[in-house]
Amino acid sequence: MSAALDVPPWLWGVTLIGLIAVIVLDLIIVDRRPHDFGPKEAARWVLFYIALAMAFAGFVTWYFGVSYGGQFVAGYLMEYSLSVDNLFVFMVIMTSFAVPSVLQHRVLLVGIVIALVLRGALILVGAELIERFTGTFYLFGGFLLFTAWQVWGSDDSEPDPGGNGFMRWIGARVPTSPHYDGSRLTTVLAGRRVLTPMAMVMLAIGTTDLLFALDSIPAVFGITSEAYLVFTVNAFALMGLRQLYFLLGGLLERLKYLNRGLAIVLGFIGVKLILEALHATTSLPVPRIPVWLSLAVVVGVLTVTAAASLYVTRDRSGPSGQESGESSR
After folding, report:
1. Alpha-helix runs per DSSP H in 31-65
2. What are the pLDDT digits (tens) for 157-190?
């Protein structure tokens, strides 16, 4: 592992202020007028956030060195790729709460802000564990291998937003309205203030994402053990995720082999973590997997996965494919 990264408090402060400014700017520019978010607009914002992440990678390279810049890029690509799986759950949650299309962008924006705050707390805990106990990598590695095995066999599983225990707890204790009131989070029903479905779906998005973070954050720790890089990787990946939701749209259903690709990536990083733990806690001559190889594996596996998925489902994109799909149901 590289020497510990010395991140001054002012840099943490500037980074957090910058992230908040980008989110506020997004709210002002995009959500000042709720509207249907089309593929062209989504594509522009996806490219904007990718460019922003690469610019930040350039800063990390300049300020901390090439090694840390490479760690950020590898971690970002892996986190962004693993986050694609979240989009399926977002689709289910949106459908479950019958979110109007003009409100979906705001739901995702606020939901992802909630997710980022929760992930930040998880990252701090993970970084503290790694600093105090080198053997934590054994735990992370074993967990990722177990998760990879589960993800590999989860092709037919359907995410259940009702399985979120926090949402069940809120629904049982807080009065809610069955109807939307524009983008308002609360409304008056029968003379009392209640939560709207808008508030509930934002909470559902934010808290459900935390379940995915339980495997993606240890995976990023497999690339870099620096809390600053892990946090910024998650921030940039999540900020660009909601635009990806609108850009991909129906394409998500064609990613037939996505789970297999994600499982391979998680398994690879799990092995990398265990090798790191063996190197740090034993005198065994174990090999160490460099960042460039991790980056190559992540990009290669996911590229092949996407290409194979789109090839085998190519007939579904045309009218004939749609008709055959409907008749098979």
Report:
1. 39-64
2. 444 554 455 566 676 777 888 788 887 888 888 7
